[in-house]
């Protein structure tokens, strides 16, 4: 998976199309990511001893990694990610601009 935690991504399909935000969690086995403020769902909580009232909580649900694209803030465009070797190390770079990711 080419997207990692902390990457800035742009959502390219679905209800949140065009949204630019950071990846907060990655699930490589499922090919899914959680993006900050995207795919908000309501979870109903049963009353417990710690939370006697229960209630409804809004949280972010995972979306498939194919629905997001890495975002280059300098060029202000979404781009595919490639790998290349630079100074003996494998680095990720934006294919559109050639800029290396952190």
UniProtKB/TrEMBL annotation:
Subunit description: Part of the 50S ribosomal subunit.
CDD domains given in the database record: KOW_RPL26
Pfam families listed in its UniProt record: KOW, ribosomal_L24
Taxon lineage: Bacteria, Bacillati, Bacillota, Erysipelotrichia, Erysipelotrichales
GO biological process: translation
Claim: DNA-binding is one of the keywords in the record: no
Protein name: Large ribosomal subunit protein uL24
UniProt keyword terms in alphabetical order: Ribonucleoprotein, Ribosomal protein, RNA-binding, rRNA-binding
Described function: One of the proteins that surrounds the polypeptide exit tunnel on the outside of the subunit.
Record GO terms (molecular function): rRNA binding; structural constituent of ribosome
Family: Belongs to the universal ribosomal protein uL24 family.
Record-level GO cellular component terms: ribonucleoprotein complex; ribosome
KOW domain span: 2-29
PANTHER family: MITOCHONDRIAL RIBOSOMAL PROTEIN L24 (PTHR12903)
Species the sequence originates in: Copranaerobaculum intestinale
């Amino acid at each position: 998976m080419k997207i990692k935690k902390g990457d800035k991504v742009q959502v390219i399909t679905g209800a949140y199309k065009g949204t630019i935000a950071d990846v907060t969690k990655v699930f490589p086995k499922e090919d899914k990511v959680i993006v900050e403020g995207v795919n908000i769902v309501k979870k109903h909580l049963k009353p417990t001893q710690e939370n006697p009232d229960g209630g409804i909580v809004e949280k972010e649900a995972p979306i498939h990694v194919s629905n997001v694209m890495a975002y280059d803030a300098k060029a202000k465009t979404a781009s595919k990610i490639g790998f290349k070797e630079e100074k003996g190390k494998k680095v990720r770079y934006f294919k559109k601009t050639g800029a290396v990711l952190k």
